[in-house]
Every structure is written in C-alpha cells, then in structure tokens.
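Tokens in:
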C-alpha cells in the first residue's frame, strides 16, 4: 500500500501501478459512522465497503502519453490522486521514476491575496521545485500566461480566464518526469488551448510522461498513444487510444444489451453472399476486399463487420490516390439481432492519428439520403460512401461503424437538431483500423496544390496599386 519514488524501475519505465485498490466505508446514517469508530474493536460493522478502484495495474513508458477515460464515477480522478500522493491506496503500490507533478485542480493552493508572481513561487514550492529555481522562470511563466501587468496584482482581481492561464503556466513550468492532468486541457480560449497543447508536446518530446484524464475524447485520440478504460473502478481495456475511445462509446449501449464483447473477426468476405435485389449500385468483386481478420472489432452483439473495400471510381481496389481523386469505401455488416434503421459511418485519420474526415449516412443532404427499412437478424447491410480526397500527400487509415435508430426518429430526422438527432443513434459495431490508403503526387514534377491537411476550396485575386512615383 505504497506510493513512492523508485529509481529501481527500468530506465524506459516512468510509472508502474500494480494491483492498486482504494476502498471507502459507506454508511447509511451519520450515527453509523460514529458507532463504527467506537465499536470497531468488537468486530461489528455498521457500513459496507465500496471499492472505488480494484486491482488496477498498468505501466507508462518514458515519454509516453496515456489517457484515462471512463464514465463519471469510474475512478479516474481517484487514480490520479493516488498516483500524486494525495490519497493512500488500500492495496497495491505505485512506483514512480523521478518527480510527479499534478494538474488536478487548476489553482489549488493559490492564495487570493498574493500576486500572480508570489503564487507562482509558492505553488511551485508545493510541487517540489526550489524557490530559487522557480524565480529564474518567472518571466517565462508570465509570458506563457500572457496576463500582462496583472501578473503583479493579487489574484483575487483576476477573471476566471486569467486565473486558469496562470495556474496552467505554473504547473507546466515544473520539470516533472511524470505529469498528471485531470481535465485541464479545456482551459482558456482556443488560442490558449493550442498553446497548452504545444507546451505538453514539448514536455513529451523532452522525455516527460503524461497521464491525461479527460472527457474530451478527441484530445485523448489525438494526444495519447494508449488509453486506459475504467468502469466501476476496474480496468476494462488498456491499449490503443482510438480503440479505447470506441469501447467507451459502446459501453453504455453494451451494458443495456448484455455486455461489451469482442466479435469474432471475419476472414475474407463471403463471396457467396447474395447481391442486392433490383437496380442497386454495383458491389465490388470478392477479390477487391481487404483482409480484416486482424482488425480490432467491437460490438454490442447486434452485428459484425464482414467486408471492407476501398476502390477507385470504377470499383477497382485502389491503395493509392492522387489529390482530388474520389475514393469509394464499401463495407458490409452481418446483422445478429433485429435492429431499426441502419446508419453507417466512416472516419479517416492521417498518419498522426488526427481525424481528418468523419461522416455518417445521416449527414448527407435529403437528395442523397436513402430510406432503408429496419433490418432483421440474418440480413446483411451494405454501405458505399464516396469521398473526394482533397488531401495532402500522406498515408491515411480509415474505420467504419454501424448504428441504428427507430423508424419514427428517422422519419423526423429533418426536424431534429444535430444534438437531438445523434442522441437517437445507438452504436452497434465498430471496426477500427479497417484499412489504409495513400495520397501521392502524380509524378516527380508535380507540385503540391496546397499546404496542410486539407485542400479548402477558394480562389484569389491580386492587384498592383501604383504609388506616387507612377
């Protein structure tokens, strides 16, 4: 039951958590707490044990960023508080190589009567940084917080935005080997958030390990290489951040329908599957489909993905495109339980795991939206999504998913708000790392038509205005 520095850890391991548990006694009435204190020696119990964390084990490598996600009450903040040494565990141990600094509650420890400068020195001392060392960094902190002359004014005069700017600037200036962050990346305006992300990237590049608790799943996917999924104090999954996020999104639906389960991977697509009746759009030949046997697939038991292909405009398998080409993404799900209206979705990520494009079949205009019927067990649902790849030259991956909504909600989709509409969609199955493709410049003499990730449509004008010499 320890939380201690451990120089004996391997040099490539910054943090090790082994069999960690935290237990609280829960009492129905206040007097039961008093009885327990007075009569505990008699062996009587007036409350019941509640395990906020149980048997939590994982490692964080040096320079690695790991996210911690889960529903409210799953034990995320408790875990960080134990690692930070604020709480003591009931069982297990935490081993840290070097110094751990925490951004758990921005501004905790600030004295409202002190100036920003004085609070910076005092707060850094609390975090274990010598005052003399911190004084040498005050100008850097002031520049990062960017609050001007208020840096030398009492913090009780600060706006909430100025307060969080100073708090993050102080915490991020500590040379920590392990940095613990609890919902602290959403502070300030968008420009300051970008500055925070850049600073954390610098810390990570410098070898610091970061443990990030956040409900901002996009931050977890973009910033973390791995993630830990907690539920009711137990570890449900440790692995790739994107996969952890998908499991988290399916968790609620999975609990309502009998549990989250791994789906047996499909090998090659069923070549003998029947073709759609009528004048349906063409389906690629069996040889066009990708091998998805090793792709991680998560489902609530309602369906499984059995086929995925990425093709050119003629339906031929195509792993390489030029900027501006149209790619056709085909994917098929076998329905294992009766569902409502099927909703398909596609996400495209770049090599840095940033979401470049995401769209589901509800997000197309009314002129493009089809009206599929509810689907029965044993049926197969096929989707095709065409995407113009106005993207920079790079390698990309994609993933597909299946959801469903009731026929009544689907009929009223045009009158629902965006939030209300997507709240009606229940996630069923998700296939991460379904496949990849590349966008390349067509020839050595070709030149890029834009910089950055995407090619945004637009034009330009130029004019030369003569000066007095003309």
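Residues out:
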């Amino acid at each position: 039951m320890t939380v201690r520095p451990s120089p004996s850890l391997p040099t490539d391991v910054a943090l090790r958590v082994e069999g960690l548990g935290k237990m609280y006694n829960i009492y129905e009435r206040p007097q039961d707490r008093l009885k327990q204190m007075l009569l505990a020696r008699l062996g009587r119990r007036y409350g019941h044990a509640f395990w906020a964390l149980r048997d939590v084990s994982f490692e964080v490598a040096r320079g690695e960023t790991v996210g911690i996600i889960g529903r409210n009450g799953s034990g995320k903040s408790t875990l960080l508080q134990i690692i930070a040494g604020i709480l003591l565990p009931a069982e297990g141990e935490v081993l840290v190589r070097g110094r751990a600094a925490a951004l758990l509650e921005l501004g905790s420890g600030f004295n409202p009567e002190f100036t920003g400068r004085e609070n910076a020195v005092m707060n850094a001392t609390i975090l274990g940084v010598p005052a003399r060392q911190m004084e040498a960094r005050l100008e850097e902190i002031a520049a990062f917080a960017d609050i001007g002359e208020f840096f030398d004014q009492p913090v009780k005069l600060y706006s909430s935005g100025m307060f969080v700017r100073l708090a993050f600037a102080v915490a991020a200036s500590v040379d920590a080997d392990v940095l613990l962050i609890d919902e602290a990346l959403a502070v300030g305006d968008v420009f300051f958030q970008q500055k925070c992300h850049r600073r954390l990237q610098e810390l990570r590049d410098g070898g610091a390990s970061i443990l990030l608790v956040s409900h901002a799943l996009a931050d977890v996917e973009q910033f973390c290489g791995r993630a830990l999924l907690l539920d009711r104090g137990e570890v449900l999954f440790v692995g790739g951040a994107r996969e952890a996020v998908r499991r988290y999104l399916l968790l609620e639906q999975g609990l309502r329908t009998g549990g989250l389960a791994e789906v047996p991977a499909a090998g090659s697509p069923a070549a003998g599957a029947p073709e759609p009746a009528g004048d349906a759009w063409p389906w690629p030949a069996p040889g066009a489909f990708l091998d998805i046997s090793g792709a991680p697939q998560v489902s609530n038991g309602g369906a499984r993905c059995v086929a995925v292909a990425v093709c050119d405009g003629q339906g031929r398998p195509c792993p390489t495109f030029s900027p501006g080409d149209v790619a056709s993404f085909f994917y098929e799900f076998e329905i294992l339980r009766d569902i409502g209206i099927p909703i398909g979705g596609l996400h495209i990520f770049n090599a840095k795991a940033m979401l470049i494009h995401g769209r589901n079949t509800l997000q197309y205009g009314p002129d493009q939206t089809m009206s599929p019927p509810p689907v029965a067990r044993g049926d197969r649902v096929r989707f095709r999504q065409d995407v113009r790849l106005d993207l920079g030259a790079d390698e990309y991956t994609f993933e597909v998913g299946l959801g469903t909504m009731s026929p009544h909600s689907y009929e009223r989709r045009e009158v629902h708000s965006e939030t209300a509409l997507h709240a009606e969609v229940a996630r069923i199955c998700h296939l991460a790392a379904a496949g990849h493709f590349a966008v390349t410049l067509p020839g050595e003499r070709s030149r890029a038509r834009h910089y950055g990730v995407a090619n945004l449509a637009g034009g330009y004008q130029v004019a030369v205005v003569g000066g007095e010499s003309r």
